[in-house]
């Protein structure tokens, strides 16, 4: 199956649920520290806080990075639970990054649920295998920059 979006994303899915193809997000700089972003058919504003020269009209790029990690891992945990025949209705995952200069030196995922700890931690390994974002961090791709 192939899916296309307005940003030119082309994703193929195998019978095993693995993805191939590409995924694209576009950012249009609108001045200062602000961009209008299109990703997955959705639009959002990315900005920096006023205290560092932005207008505070949207999350910072690093906020979105952490949001991507937390939400992807939450979805992967919910998937792993469903594979075992149960739901996690009160699941909450937080991602915390520790800044070191212009990067994060560490990332921490914190998982909360009413499910007993031993049952919840048993889901961490299958969720880690299924989470595209944490897998990308674990196996960092090369970042290339080129002219359009």
List the helices and strands and how they pair.
Elements: E1 2-4, E2 10-13, E3 19-22, E4 25-31, E5 34-39, E6 42-46, H1 61-83, E7 92-100, E8 103-112, H2 117-121, H3 124-130, H4 132-138
Antiparallel strand pairs: 1-2, 2-3, 4-5, 5-6, 7-8
Write up this protein.
It is a single chain. The protein is of the alpha+beta class. The chain has 2 domains: 1-59, no CATH class; 60-148, GMP Synthetase, Chain A, domain 3, CATH 3.30.300. It has 4 helices and 8 strands. The strands form 3 sheets. The chain has a 3-stranded antiparallel beta sheet with strand order 1-2-3, with no helix packed on it. It has a 3-stranded antiparallel beta sheet with strand order 4-5-6, with no helix packed on it. The protein has a two-stranded antiparallel sheet with strand order 7-8. A hairpin with a 2-residue loop joins strand 7 (92-100) and strand 8 (103-112). The longest helix is centred in the middle third of the chain and has 23 residues, at 61-83.
* Gross geometry: globular
In the CATH hierarchy, the third-tier topology of the largest domain is known as GMP Synthetase, Chain A, domain 3
Structural class, from helix and strand content?
alpha+beta
Strand content: 25-35%
CATH class term of the largest domain: Alpha Beta
> How many alpha or pi helices?
4
User: Quick one: CATH superfamily of the largest domain?
Assistant: K homology (KH) domain
What percent of the residues sit in helical stretches (DSSP H or I)? 25-40%
Total count of domains? 2
Largest sheet: 3 strands, antiparallel
What is the CA-atom radius of gyration, in angstroms?
18 Å
Strand order of the largest sheet: 1-2-3
Low-confidence spans: pLDDT under 50, at least 5 residues? Answer: none
- Spell out the helices and strands N to C: EEEEEEHEEHHH
The CATH architecture assignment of the largest domain turns out to be: 2-Layer Sandwich
Number of strands: 8
How far from one another are the termini? Answer: 28 Å
């Amino acid at each position: 199956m192939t899916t296309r979006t307005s940003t030119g994303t082309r994703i193929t899915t195998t019978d095993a649920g693995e993805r191939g193809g590409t995924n694209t997000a576009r950012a249009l700089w609108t001045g200062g520290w602000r961009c209008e972003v299109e990703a997955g058919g959705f639009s959002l504003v990315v900005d920096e806080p006023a205290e560092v020269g932005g207008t505070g009209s949207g999350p910072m790029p690093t906020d979105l990075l952490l949001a991507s990690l937390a939400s992807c891992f939450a979805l992967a945990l919910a998937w792993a639970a469903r594979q075992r025949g149960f739901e996690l209705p009160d699941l909450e995952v937080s991602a915390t990054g520790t800044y070191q200069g212009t990067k994060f030196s560490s990332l921490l995922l914190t998982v909360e649920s009413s499910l007993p700890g031993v049952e919840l931690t048993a889901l961490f390994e299958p969720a880690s295998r299924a989470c595209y974002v944490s897998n990308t961090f674990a196996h960092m791709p090369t970042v290339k920059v080129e002219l359009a």
